[in-house]
Amino acid sequence: MATSPEAQTQSMIANMKDKTGKTLEQWTKIAAASKLAKHGEIVKHLKADHGLTHGYANLVAHTVLKSDAASVAQASGGDEALVDAQYAGDKGELRPIYDALIAAIRKFGPDVELAPKKAYVSLRRSKQFGLIQPSTKTRVDVGINLKGTPSTDRLEASGSFNAMVSHRVRIENKAQVDQEVIGWLRAAYESA
Q: What is the dotted CATH code of the domain comprising 79-191?
């Protein structure tokens, strides 16, 4: 069974013709011919007019608009370019927080995988154990997957922040990248 988002996407692409009757390339041409320019419009069109499930319609829309992480990374020069874009402009002063977190996380083991997306960096081992996201120009949010761990004032329940993690820690300066935060990330890594 595919476990990473990339593996799940590749599985969907491989099974698309069997499940939908057409390949991704064929669906991409159909979606492009509709001349729709917004993601939601393309998804709605493919679901309503062609009977695609939401997952396949979403995949086709991302492919047509080149808004999936792989397309963005390829167009912008790779994973590092995605991270650079996250910390560009008024979020530039947050980069030392990200760098400090990554330096500590890389010490967990050789199997730590960093998977930059458009808005955040996913932290994975065999599955996602956390994420780092510059949420505002003054704050980085660290999502941590610690299901069953009680929330505290600092280790908040993630709420609507991101469904892929159970908790969030808000970090506004490099000094807040302390042993407590690294300990929570290590616990999540070890249970991944």
A: 3.90.1150
